[in-house]
Design a protein that fits this description.
- With 327 residues, this protein is of the alpha+beta class.
- The protein has 2 domains: 3-89, 2-Layer Sandwich (Phosphorylase Kinase, domain 1), CATH 3.30.200.20; 94-311, Aminoglycoside 3'-phosphotransferase, Chain: A, domain 2.
- 41% of the residues lie in helices and 21% in strands.
- The chain has helices spanning 3-11, 50-66, 96-99, 105-125, 153-167, 173-185, 227-240, 247-258, 268-279, 296-311; strands spanning 17-25, 29-36, 41-47, 74-80, 83-89, 94-95, 127-128, 132-137, 144-147, 194-197, 206-209, 212-216, 223-225.
- The strands form 3 sheets. Strands 1-2-3-5-4 form a 5-stranded antiparallel β-sheet, sandwiched between helices. A 5-stranded antiparallel β-sheet has the order 7-10-13-8-9.
- Strand 11 (206-209) and strand 12 form a beta hairpin.
- The N and C termini lie far apart (44 Å).
């Protein structure tokens, strides 16, 4: 059964499909561009687990409503033959992941400010009584969200951190015990504020047009965590992922965040875990930072150098290891 065509024909019965083009296939979601005969285009997201897409769609709608982040409008949702689908307006722009390194310095700084401001707005707009995976209740027009997880931050964070360390492949073995030790010896508050933790908020899930972020695309599997962890993760993916020295981008990111709310305390262990949880994807493969993307030993080296600099640093401030970009 062609699930994409079935979903589109159900939601747009008077339109004729002209072309169907696969865009990307993640580990859990398939995304397809559908062009109608009249030239209009929409994006169809398809998953085998309708409940996971329901949560993502509700959060995307809420983020679009509560923040200035450019989130594409959701046109329709539903299920077909047990598969969940969302039909979304097509956003204008190029993949920011591919464009970031070719942007001039001023535009890169503005992009970093946009991510910082957006994260600050997310932290202001979504707060919770606990930590961990989010769930939702209410109908689509007034959806609310809650953390369906732990109420003890230290316990939840330790599990989250150890799971990430466990997932690192053998090429990280020489660092593994130091990472476990850093988690074990970290001094953390028991009940810090809990806010939305958009763990995959990054240029790789964004578009750019006219030298500005034109769309932020992926809100799947959201979590609740303390603000410092979210800052550490997004800052790493914006300031460190594409350039050898991310100091200027980090300052711009912070400026954006502080334009909304005070910058939180970012414990060094949060920066360690931000790198750990960025180094391997959900399929267990080492992620590929930069563009053109590092692969193989170059990708491993990127993550190892960053982790080594963090676990060996006596300071809470993020170190700036000089990572070779000539690969």
């Amino acid at each position: 059964m062609n699930y994409v065509a079935a979903a589109v024909e159900r939601e747009f019965p008077t339109k004729r499909i002209g072309a169907v083009s696969p865009m990307r296939s993640g580990n859990h979601k398939r995304t397809t561009l559908v062009t109608f005969a009249d030239g209009e285009t929409v994006v169809v997201q398809l998953v085998s687990d309708p409940e996971s897409l329901r949560l993502e769609v509700r959060l995307a709608r809420a983020v679009r409503k509560r923040t200035s982040l450019p989130v594409p409008r959701v046109l329709a949702t539903g299920t077909v033959a047990g598969h969940g689908y969302a039909i979304v307006e097509r956003a204008v722009g190029d993949e920011l992941h591919e464009r970031f390194v070719s942007l001039d310095t001023a535009t890169q700084m503005q992009v970093a400010r946009t991510f910082g401001r957006g994260l600050g707005q997310l932290h202001d707009a979504f707060s919770f009584d606990g930590y961990g995976a989010l769930d939702t209740f209410g109908d689509d027009s007034i959806a609310e969200f809650y953390a369906d997880g732990a109420t003890d931050w230290r316990s939840w964070f330790a599990t989250y951190a150890r799971d990430g360390i466990d997932a690192l492949p053998p090429t990280f073995d020489s660092l593994r015990q130091r990472l476990y030790d850093a988690v074990e010896t970290a001094s953390l508050p028991a009940s810090p504020p809990a806010v939305l933790y958009p763990w995959d908020l990054r240029p790789g899930n964004a578009l750019v047009a006219d030298d500005a972020v034109s769309a932020v695309l992926d809100w799947g599997n959201p979590l609740a965590a303390t603000p410092g962890l979210g800052v550490a993760k997004v800052e790493h993916l914006v300031a460190d992922w594409y350039v050898a020295d991310g100091s200027a981008l980090r300052r711009a990111f912070r400026e954006g965040y502080e334009g909304v709310r005070p910058y939180p305390t970012v414990e060094r262990i949060y920066r360690v875990v931000a790198v750990v949880r960025s180094a391997v994807d959900s399929a267990g493969d080492v992620t590929r930072p930069g563009y053109p993307e590092r692969t193989g030993s170059a990708a491993v080296a990127f993550h190892r150098v960053r982790l080594a600099s963090l676990v060996n640093s006596p300071s809470e401030s993020p170190p700036n290891p000089q990572i070779d970009t000539n690969y």
